[in-house]
Amino acid sequence: MFATRSVARVALRSAPNAVRYFSSSRPVAVAYHSYTLPSHNPPPPRGDDVPETSITQPDPLPKVHETRPPPQQPQRPQPPQPQHEAPSQNAAAPATPKTPSAPAPKLNEKEAQKPKAARPRPKLRARKAAMKLTPAAVEQLREMLDQPDPKLIKVGVRNRGCSGLAYHLEYVDKPGAFDETVEQDGVKVLIDSKALFSIIGSEMDWAEDKLNQRFVFRNPNIKEQCGCGESFMV
């Protein structure tokens, strides 16, 4: 209780001093200063002269029923770049002395006029006939072909006899596509293409006896032959 009374006394004593200080202090006022506006315009913002591209403004998408392509943006022309002149190669490269070229060898007049040797041609050798004719066979064939309507004689083989193959002769008007032609002493004889392997290298002869007259063949390709000599095997 005594503490409260002492605090109150101290407050009453300090109150007149505070009123005196507030009444004696001057009011604080803010001074006003005028400023002039700038006469020149501010510079434009950077990138103002750059045309609008797809980055700044996306390309408009075509409509559903519109088939025309979207308008293209105008391209900005690029300033020409200065071209630097390259030093000439003639000035940089050292001058090399020209050496005289060696003269071409001249041919003698005789060598120039001499004709070139002709290329030797291969010699064509006569092919060996597939079958030989004896003089008796040639004479008999000439008599058989000396007729008003002559025909060619064709020699072949047939599967006949006890050994398997037998000779077969027939008259034909013209040779076949693959028949072999044997010409000797003005007489032509045809060999069947199917029988050429069995007849090649044979000799054709004409034989006469008291029983018969016929053409006989001496064939080196025969391996087996029947006793009568009618059939053979190669």
TrEMBL record:
Which stretches are tagged as biased composition: Pro residues?
69-82
Give all residue intervals belonging to the Core domain.
Answer: 131-230
- Recorded GO MF terms: 2 iron, 2 sulfur cluster binding
Q: Which Gene3D superfamilies match?
A: HesB-like domain (2.60.300.12)
Spell out the PROSITE patterns in the cross-references: HESB
GO BP terms: namely: iron-sulfur cluster assembly
Looking at the record's lineage, which domain of life comes first? Eukaryota
Provide the residue span(s) of the region labelled Disordered: 35-128
Q: Which Pfam families match?
A: Fe-S_biosyn (PF01521)
Ranges annotated as biased composition (Low complexity): 91-106
Tell me which GO cellular component terms the UniProt record holds: mitochondrion
Basic residues bias located where?
A: 116-128
> Which family is this sequence assigned to?
Belongs to the HesB/IscA family.
Q: What does this protein do?
A: Involved in the assembly of mitochondrial and cytoplasmic iron-sulfur proteins. Probably involved in the binding of an intermediate of Fe/S cluster assembly.
The identity of this protein, by name, is: Iron-sulfur assembly protein 1
Taxonomy, top ranks, is: Eukaryota, Fungi, Dikarya, Ascomycota, Pezizomycotina
